[in-house]
Amino acid sequence: MSKPSISVLARFVAATAGRNMTRAAYVAMTAGVVTMVLLTVNPAYEAAHRWVDGVLWVCLAYFVFEWVVRLRHMAGQQRLPLYLLSSSGIVDAIGALAIPLALVVGVEPRTAWLLSVLWVLKVVPGIPGLRQLRRVLVLESGPLLSVLVIFLMVVLLASVAEYFLEHDVQPQTFGSVPSALWWAVVTLTTTGYGDVVPVTPLGRLIAGLVMISGLGVFGLWTGILATGFAAETRRDNFLKTWETVSNVPFFAALGPAAIADVTHMLRTMDLPARTMIIRKGQQGDCMYFIASGEVAVDLPGKQVQLGEGAFFGEMALLGNNVRGANVTTTKVSRLLVLDLVDFRVLMARHPDLAETIDAEAKRRALENK
């Protein structure tokens, strides 16, 4: 094998050894699942069974290879037990071994290949939103379990009540509490198949109460999850903004409490190159700090470049609120935006920052005359 080929293989193995899926893995997963679906369509499978079988075997070979590479990689880092017990390690093992084991124990091949649907689980460890969902479920487990208890109580009480009221009238459908449980679950989840319906007046009254309870129970679950997601999103945004703020030289001298105060006030803005941020003559209601990147300020007869750690737009907040120059990004930039109301609060809480901004504004005003 030539040196370029070895280099390409080495890069491929290094990428495969990583925790996240590579493009090749996404292609293999998509091709495998689509081919598995075609496997269940008899006309399509009969017309192209060799291609279908071939694609499935190639995809399986890739996932087995990927699993073996990761095993060797983790063994080399002395992290093999940790990998094997992790969610990504379990998913990789299932993707590589489920089908071969099914074939070995004698499962019919077309049935065994249905297990290739498990390959879709490989995307789970790499989805940030699912990791966030897991954190929300753990943090909100208490309230969620409380609502689950309410759900089970309503189901049980409703099924017993309907059995008592309806078993003489409808012995086939409400002849026992387990039979009534089906009606209670369907009604509480507001699915309402209509195959089992109370006919007595009290039975219908109970059914109405169960339907209303179902709306309340699922409303509670939705509210708990929505609140948890909102809290996690705020937390993630706070941490990202904190990191950005702490890296701006202008805020470097602030203590942790002050940085936390500033972080709550600032919002982050990511902009591509050649984006107009400020247009001359517009009303100004915020100022900007450059966390990364660069902007160009168009002044009469010259253009000034401002880089990481600089700020601009403060003139509109200190006096005349009309923008005095055009400001455009010259490269991909991340800006921290401070609105007028928060600007005044921040200046009141941190006079040293107010003096620094005011001194810089006066210096720039003299330079621009």
Topology diagram in text:
Layout: H1 3-17, H2 23-39, H3 42-47, H4 49-76, H5 80-85, H6 87-104, H7 109-112, H8 128-139, H9 141-166, H10 171-174, H11 177-188, H12 201-246, H13 256-265, E1 267-271, E2 276-278, E3 286-292, E4 295-299, E5 302-306, E6 311-312, H14 315-318, E7 326-329, E8 333-339, H15 340-349, H16 351-367
Antiparallel strand pairs: 1-8, 2-7, 3-6, 3-8, 4-5, 4-7
Helix pairs in contact: 2-4, 4-6, 8-12, 9-11, 9-12, 12-13, 15-16
**Distance N to C terminus:** 69 Å
Domain module count:
3
Strand content: 5-15%
* Sheet with most strands: strand arrangement: 1-8-3-6
Low-confidence stretches: none
Q: Total helix count?
A: 16
Helix content: 55-70%
Largest sheet: 4 strands, antiparallel
Q: Which structural class matches the secondary elements?
A: alpha+beta
Label the overall shape: extended
- By DSSP, the count of extended strands is 8
Question: Which value, in Å, is the CA radius of gyration?
Answer: 31 Å
Mean pLDDT: 81
Order of SSEs, N→C? HHHHHHHHHHHHHEEEEEEHEEHH
Overview of the structural elements:
By secondary structure, this protein is an alpha+beta fold. It folds into three domains: 3-126; 141-232, Helix Hairpins (Orthogonal Bundle); 251-367, Sandwich (Jelly Rolls), CATH 2.60.120.10. The protein contains 16 helices and eight strands. The strands form two sheets. A four-stranded antiparallel β-sheet has the order 1-8-3-6. A hairpin with a 2-residue loop joins strand 4 (295-299) and strand 5. The longest helix is centred in the middle third of the chain and has 46 residues, at 201-246. It is extended.
